[in-house]
Amino acid sequence: MKNLKNIIKCAAFDIDGTILPNGNTKFSQKTIDAFSLLRKNGIVSILATAREFSTICDFLEQLKPDYFIGANGSFILDCNKNEIIYEVGLNLNEVKILYDEFYNDNFNFIITDVNKSYYSKNTNLDTWFIRPNISKYEELDFNKVIDKRIYVITLSGENISNKVDLINEFINKNNLNMEINSTWSRGIFIGPKKTTKSSTLELLTKKIGYSNDNLIAFGDSSNDFEMIRDAVYGVAMERANWRIKSVADDVALDCEYDGAYLKLKELKLI
């Protein structure tokens, strides 16, 4: 690897589990300093996360990144101009088709558009992810959901990860323009087809005169796989599983120990 200082022009970070411990709403001072130092060194800073406008809290104010890629790649916000410069959304009728097929008391939906997150009855809202943002959540009313500006569907429930194949089969059979882009033990994210953090990072880096060959990316989860793989220098957090680490160029200490900050220091990028 050549001197990264001469190559890296953009730095992308997942949030939860990467630069912020799960359940926290305040970044460490070293993480805040990292973003300030990146700016000072002329490196574009990007948050690339599953979070969207309902769940981003005051993170943009805390970190002051240049760009916010949200909902696993469904939109790009230019933070300096407070302007959405790219977005791709789900079709409301297709979302209804999926909902009608799979919603039940043990299989809950949260449908997130540009303004709000709408939850089905019996959805557990008492989680570390939702609790700080509860004012942005409303009970689902399809008449309020904005067509083609639906960024992500979150499915949750017991043993939901066992339903991935069934959901994929239904999506493909009905030719729905959506796909599962991340799973965990009690949840599934569904977004627009062929949309990932990495694909949107590629669009953004080209738009600002660079490419993924100028990108360092930090992440810890399945929705970070592609951006860690496709960045010229991908960094997995220590907590990441073997699959994520298998495509990474490096491993950083976890966010509880300011791993991203320390890795940027080690690589002489800040």
TrEMBL record:
GO terms for molecular function: magnesium ion binding; phosphatase activity. GO terms for cellular component: cytosol. InterPro entries: Cof, HAD-like_sf, HAD-SF_hydro_IIB, HAD_sf. PROSITE patterns: COF_2. This is HAD family phosphatase. The lineage of its organism: Bacteria, Bacillati, Mycoplasmatota, Mollicutes, Mycoplasmataceae.
